[in-house]
Description:
Order of helices and strands: HHHHHHHHHHHH
Distance between the termini: 45 Å
Strand content: under 5%
Amino acid sequence: IKQLGLTKLDEEFIPEDIDQSLYGLISDLNKTLAKNSKYDIQDLISIKNRFSEIIKYKTKDSLLLYNYSRIFKALRDFTNELTYLKKAEETDSQSPKVKLAIALCYFYNSDYQEAKEYFEILINADLNIPTNTNKKFSFTVTKLYHLCLLYLGHYDTIIESSMNWKNMEYWSGLVGVYRATALKRKIEFKFLSISSNEIIIDEILNIFDFVLTEENYFDAACVEANKIIKDLIFTINPNYEYSNRIIKKYFQFVAKHFFN
């Protein structure tokens, strides 16, 4: 079912077969939240009160509870947002949309461990695959799951799971970027020999060269490449005694991707 280009996994989607009064209420909520984040607090409070009246009598309606949580998200009320998302999950434990909303709620409130666990549920159900969900949903799951791992310091998990990143059917470039980032973090937190570091730096440069060349400089790759290349500038410092080969490779990468 599609509604103005939306799929059932989009947060604004409204099923056609629901009560018309609820349809109208969610439609009004969508209009209120579609104002480019410049919400009128009075409008939000007004629509919140309309939801509250219905929830008194429909305490087990997952769609109602899910959309009610969206009001608290707009109001930056994390506690109530999560409370009503959990109630929505209790009434519809299989809803991918609800589980993603809970993961996002945790993630944007810096509870990366809890967020990771919900992202893993979605990944284990193959909902990081676009053909099983949609492009936006699967991209969000893939990207934020890897960010959770990075923020939690689970670098080896990323490195081990991305060994064959080039052969992944979906989001291979994105996974490659986070593999390179995890490898860079390993250099930061482990005192390795120059030769060991060179092996890692070599792979990092290879990953970014491939991703930027083959996937047309998408945002996440550019942001991470820019940060990491700046961080790796120590390789050209003569005090560290890196080989001429790796120094030349570093300069060639910079020349190719920053000045061409």
